[in-house]
Amino acid sequence: MNASSKHVDGVAANCNAGDDNLNITRRNLLKLAGMGAATIAGGSVSISGMSAEAPPPGAATVPASKVALYVNGVPRELSLDTRTTLLDALREQLHLTGTKKGCDHGQCGACTVIVDGRRINSCLTLAVMHQGSQVVTIEGLGTPANLHPMQAAFVKHDGFQCGYCTPGQICSAVAVLDEIKAGVPSHVSTDLLAPPRPTNMEVRERMSGNICRCGAYSNIAEAMTEVAGGRA
C-alpha cells in the first residue's frame, strides 16, 4: 500500500469514527441555513422599510439661494437649489426650453448661451455663479416675426436638419463673430498680431465645440460668413 492509499484510509477511518456527530451536524446545518435565510430576508425588509420613511420634522433641507439674473433683457429673481445648473434654471424655472440639454457634459454645445457677451456651456456652470449677469438665450436673439440676421442666414443656407442643436449653434455663431470682431485669435490664426478674419477655416475651428450630428457644418459656415460679410 502506498502513502496516498494510507492517507485516504486514514481520513475514511476518522470520518467513520465520528459518523454520529457528522450526521447530527448535517441535519442541524439545514435547519440553521433556513433560519439564517429568514433572518436575512427579514432584515432586508426592515432596512428597505426604514429608507422609505419620510424625514422627521426639522430635518436638513436642500440649500437654496436667491439668484438675480437679466435673462434676454428682463430682470428675473429665482430661489434655487445651489446645485442647479444655469441650463436647468433656464429650462425648468424660466421655461425657456429653446436651450437644449444634449450630453450634459459640456461636449456637444447644444446648451450654449451667451453670458455677459461670451458663449458658455450652460450645463457646466451653476446658476448661482452668475448673480447679476446678462444672459441671452435663443429666445432673446429674435422672434419668428423678426429674426436675428444669424437666424435668417441659417434658414437661408439650410444650416440645420433635425434642429435640436440649432439654438446652441446660433448662439455660438453670434458670439464667434463678436470674438472675431474683437480681435480674439484662435488656434488656426496664422498671425496673432493681425486682426482675425471670418474665413472658412477660422469659422470651423471656432465652432468645433458645437456638434451637429446631422452634418450641416458646411451650411453653417456659409451662413456665418454671409452674416460676417465674407464668403465661405
From TrEMBL:
Residue ranges constituting the 2Fe-2S ferredoxin-type domain according to the UniProt record: 65-141
CDD domains reported for this sequence: fer2
SUPFAM superfamilies membership: 2Fe-2S ferredoxin-like, CO dehydrogenase ISP C-domain like
Keyword annotations of the record: 2Fe-2S, Iron, Iron-sulfur, Metal-binding, Oxidoreductase
Organism, scientific name: Caballeronia arationis
Gene Ontology CC entries for this record: periplasmic space
A Gene Ontology molecular function term of the record: metal ion binding
InterPro entries: 2Fe-2S-bd, 2Fe-2S-bd_dom_sf, 2Fe-2S_ferredoxin-like_sf, 2Fe-2S_ferredoxin-type, 2Fe2S_fd_BS, Aldehyde_Oxdr_Iron-Sulfur, Beta-grasp_dom_sf, TAT_signal
A Pfam family the protein falls into: Fer2
Protein name per its UniProtKB record: Tat (Twin-arginine translocation) pathway signal sequence
